[in-house]
Amino acid sequence: KQEVTQIPAALSVPEGENLVLNCSFTDSAIYNLQWFRQDPGKGLTSLLLIQSSQREQTSGRLNASLDKSSGRSTLYIAASQPGDSATYLCAVRPKAAGNKLTFGGGTRVLVKP
Amino acid sequence: EAQVTQNPRYLITVTGKKLTVTCSQNMNHEYMSWYRQDPGLGLRQIYYSMNVEVTDKGDVPEGYKVSRKEKRNFPLILESPSPNQTSLYFCASSPRQAPNEKLFFGSGTQLSVL
Questions:
Q1: What whole-number distance in Å separates Cα of residue A111 and Cα of residue A54?
Q2: pLDDT of residue B10
Q3: Cα distance from A113 to chain B (closest Cα, Å)?
Q4: How distant is the Cα of B50 from the closest Cα of chain A, in angstroms?
Q5: Model confidence at A1, in pLDDT bands (50, 70, 90)?
Q6: Can you tell me the mean pLDDT for B4-20?
Q7: A21-70 pLDDT, tens digit each
Q8: For strand A107-112 and strand A10-14, is the pairing parallel, antiparallel, or unpaired?
Q9: A45 vs B contacts (CB less than 8 Å)
Q10: CA end-to-end span of chain B, whole Å?
Q11: Which of B40, B102, B106 shows the shortest C-beta gap to A34?
């Protein structure tokens, strides 16, 4: 059974510092991995989707890498801003599970001005 | 504006009183699903639908029903809610059931069952 873990559960950094968020998964047979942002009282917003054949995806200050063989993904957020404060979730789409996403527990990020 | 709309945003009810949480998307998406989010357990899939009249169970379907009579709507029905169904619920959709499609989420429904 696929399990997705995000450590740490919470992270606090000063504004301007680069953020590094980790995601690990137990089964490398996946279609893709997706990073989401969740703000309090709001839904999940998709940030980046990395196909299983890709090594990384970039969007603005965000860069996500994928190492399928080791079961790891890292989300980098450059030059963090207070507006980046949110919970970040990663989710994999396992090949064995049809259309289901398996989510990690999330990392709650606070960027202090 | 392209979006997934859930209603209500907040709901407090009592044990055993049937309720429905509605979900509607205006993007002509084929695939829709329901998740619940609980502290320490993350998001878990309840049911999903690959198209009209096609639904299937996710990881935690017990105590829930769904229907997909129209492409845009995917209501979640709790016939006899219990306190362990107190949770934050999300509806999501994607264009097709192809695995490499991004999921679009609604804003969530916070349900409390007393």
A1: 29
A2: 95
A3: 27
A4: 9
A5: confident
A6: 96
A7: 999 999 999 989 999 999 987 788 999 999 999 999 999 999 999 999 99
A8: parallel
A9: 105
A10: 36
A11: B102
